User: Fold this.
Amino acid sequence: MSDFSLAPGSTIHLHRALGRIRDLGKTAGVVLNPATPLTAIEYVIELCGVILIMTVNPGFGGQDYIATMEPKIAEARKMIDATGRDIPLEVDGGISSETIGAAAAAGADTFVVGSALFRHPDGIAACVAEWERRRDALLGQLAGYPVVRPAGGWSLLLETPPLGLGPAELSARLLAERVAATPMPGWGAEVAERYIRFVYSNEPVPRLELLRQRLERAVPG
Assistant:
């Protein structure tokens, strides 16, 4: 096991515990339950290798996603960006094809999916296949563009300078075409300054198949 994550209330010496985990050569993380404020990690974030925000109250599977955690996710993203470090921001609880997009838009970049896979009417394989169809539809629409092929199944990066635009400007142009894409500056390493991100996991394939024509209208000829 390479990662160990602790809830702030599990120890009276969180700073010491996180430091000890790091000393053992492991990744130290903190888990924040819905009622746990972000101030709990304010003075230990430099020791964190991952931050996990629970979007349900832990205890059993199948609970509904708590959408009111999204401002907390967004604030955690700001805290991480302020450190200048690439700390994964993970969410766990009620994550499905219907909720993952909102969590990602708030700033999460790592997702725990459990019950949603088992609840799919045609089983896990069909659920995964649907996400892969959405990924492949987006890749098809962006064929020939400078993209970073996704390793997982929920978002994709497009490099903007080769298109003659910065991330913020292209994001604004796409929004005018009714396409939401997140400018990535401030989301980690310097290379992020070159990208926008499309979250496709909760978009139906027919809508994804409209992207190319909208992108062509947004990019200068």
